[in-house]
Amino acid sequence: MKIISGCPGQNTAYLKDFNTNIIKCPGCGHEIEFFSDEKKVRCPQCKSSVFKISPQVIEYRSGKLIYHDSGESCLDWCGGCLDKNDYKDIMENRKRIEKKKEDFKKLIDSIDKKDKEVIQFFIEAFQKSINDSKLVDQKIFDILQKKNPELFIRSRNYYLNFLNM
After folding, report:
1. DSSP class of 102
2. What is the pTM of this model?
């Protein structure tokens, strides 16, 4: 895609946020720095591609999950400023996230609606696991097991039942 007048995102006059964000690599746990305009970087330690994903607000109301997106970026309509392979990777990652959201909805639907504590645990775990290949990162279960063994047992049982469906 050719942009006639140039990408406004590449002009520093249009940039609003020069801050950086630090996230952990889902492959090795190494801390990775993203600038506000970056969506994908290579982990300097394990060399895997890591995507910066804006967190979504997830609400659970009246027995339904509601996703509030953080807003569209120029990548949603252009991508002209990126290498074609990087743009393709980012779009494939978005599809992966949408699939995870569908699976997450199925998981939540399989939980007894009265068990709000488990539902809230999974919402928080899902948001923290968005870069992970699994629906919920195993490390989150490990932490829960130490902090709240009873909630861990209930949550783990729901998760295992969901995986066996």
Report:
1. H
2. 0.68
Assigned domain for 6 exists? no
Tokens of 12: 């520093």
Measured CA to CA, the distance from residue 97 to residue 116 in angstroms comes to 24
CA–CA gap between residue 47 and residue 98 (Å, rounded): 25
Structural domain span for residue 157 = 53-163
Q: Which residues pair with 34 in a beta bridge?
A: 21
Q: How many structural domains is the chain composed of? A: 1
Helix/strand/coil (H/E/C) assignment for every residue in 43-88: CCCCCCEEECCCCCEEEEECCEEEEECCCCCHHHCCCCCCCHHHHH
Instruction: Name 115's Cβ contacts closer than 8 Å, sequence gap at least 6.
Output: 154, 158
Nearest-angstrom CA–CA distance, 92 and 94: 5
Domain membership of residue 32 (yes or no) is no
Q: In this predicted model, what pLDDT tens digit does every residue of 56-73 receive, in sequence order?
A: 667 788 888 887 765 556
